[in-house]
């Protein structure tokens, strides 16, 4: 019986050691970015599209909806007249939030400054969750609770998984299939000549 157990232990170690060696340095980062692209890229971009104003310079003049989503209580206090909201810091905050929803997801997917972009997305998700709870009045069902046996809550459950996915990228980087890897190689090659 001991030999059978030893055989399966050696087989287990051999198979998963080989799998780890074959995927080291490229798979985890590429798969995390693929999962982010497939699940969250269009979610954030569609949300950002609701925030840009009209015309070619709409990205500099966020829509009323942008202010209502990012500063809901303030907008309610001024009867949804964004002209009554001071430019600094609030208009700047709304413009930055809108741009972040376009730029950070694109950087994550492309693997460009991935660790920074992923950390930025984690902060963005935390702020988004805070606004949903305190400003938009998310109910208990939407907020959910950890360890409650119901994994469908939008805020506590889903967003924790989003943050885990992004934390993998913050800690491990995007891997070899990324613009970060290409830029690092170009920089290293250029540094050798100086």
UniProtKB/TrEMBL annotation:
Broad class of the protein's primary localization: membrane
A Pfam family matched in the record: DoxX
Cleavable signal peptide: none
Membrane topology: Multi-pass membrane protein
Positions of transmembrane segments: 26-45, 87-110, 122-147, 159-183
Listed InterPro entries: DoxX
Keyword Membrane: yes
Protein name: DoxX family membrane protein
Species assigned in the record: Pannonibacter tanglangensis
